[in-house]
Each structure stands twice: as structure tokens, then as C-alpha cells.
Amino acid sequence: MTQTPEDALKVIQSHPEGVLQSELWKILDVDSRKCSRLVKKLLDSGMIDRVEFRKDGIKTFVLKASRRPVEPVLILAGEELIPCIGCDQECHIEECAKLLDWMYQLAISDVDQ
Ligand code: SF4
């Protein structure tokens, strides 16, 4: 099966606690050499971090998605910060008027630019 670095990244991102490289190639259904190449590409591009780990005396690595600073453009609508930051309400995202207002502002600010 052909897997891309993006496929590997999705698997790694879906495991916030990290995924063992010795498990990743099984999940992706590729051989360990192909998995190593995918991991190297992700490491070189800074998308993941790798920490050495021993399982049953055998060296492997824990792979985790890199934490990156949030792009301001993703949390701002014009000059309005997304309301979810600091929100302490019980979240019903489908019905949230504050979020809807913010999305409306986002749509307007996109048109203004
Ligand atoms: S969607 Fe609404 S209720 Fe949920 S965190 Fe954001 S602002 Fe708060």
C-alpha cells in the first residue's frame, strides 16, 4: 500500500500522547523502511518530534506532532478574537450565538479585504 507523509502525519496527530514508530508502520500497513522514510520527511519538515523509547529492551521512538504557535489569522475576525478563548460556558458549538457572531464578523472582514 502506498502511504504519504501526510497519511503518517494524520495518524501521529490522532495520537496526542504519541505513537511508537514500531507501531506506526503496522498502522500504515507499510514496511519499516518505508515508515522510516516517511518519518524522516516529517522530522525534516519540523512537523513532528521524536523521542527515543525502549520497549521490552528494544529501542524505538515515540513520535508526536510538533506544537506550533497558532497563526493569529486563524483566531481573529478583523480585530475580534474567537470567543472560545477564555470561554467558560458549557459548549454547544452548533448553537453558539457568540461563535456565530464571530463567524459573521470573519465573513465580513474577508469581504472587506
Ligand atoms: S463555541 Fe461558544 S460555547 Fe463553545 S467554547 Fe466557543 S464560545 Fe464557548
Q: What's the helix-strand series?
A: HEHHEEEEH
Rg is 20 Å
In the CATH hierarchy, what is the superfamily of the largest domain? Winged helix-like DNA-binding domain superfamily/Winged helix DNA-binding domain
* Global morphology: elongated
Helix-and-strand structural type: alpha+beta
> Uncertain regions: pLDDT < 50 for 5+ in a row?
none
- Domain tally: 2
CATH topology of the largest domain: Arc Repressor Mutant, subunit A
What are the distinct ligands in this entry? Answer: iron/sulfur cluster
In the CATH hierarchy, what is the class of the largest domain? Mainly Alpha
Question: What is the tally of beta strands?
Answer: 5
CATH architecture of the largest domain: Orthogonal Bundle
Largest sheet: 3 strands, antiparallel
Strand arrangement, major sheet? 1-3-2
Could you estimate the helical fraction of the residues in percent?
40-55%
- Taken as a percent bin, the fraction of beta residues is 15-25%
Question: What's the number of helices?
Answer: 4
Task: Give the averaged pLDDT, no decimals.
Answer: 89
Tell me the span between the first and last alpha carbons.
44 Å
Descriptive notes:
The protein has 113 residues and is of the alpha+beta class. It folds into two domains: 5-65, Arc Repressor Mutant, subunit A; 72-112, no CATH class. The protein is 41% helix and 19% strand. It has four helices and five strands. α2 packs across α3 (32-44). The model has no long low-confidence stretch (mean pLDDT 89). Residues 83-84, 87, 89, 91, 93, 96, 98-99 line the site of iron/sulfur cluster (SF4).
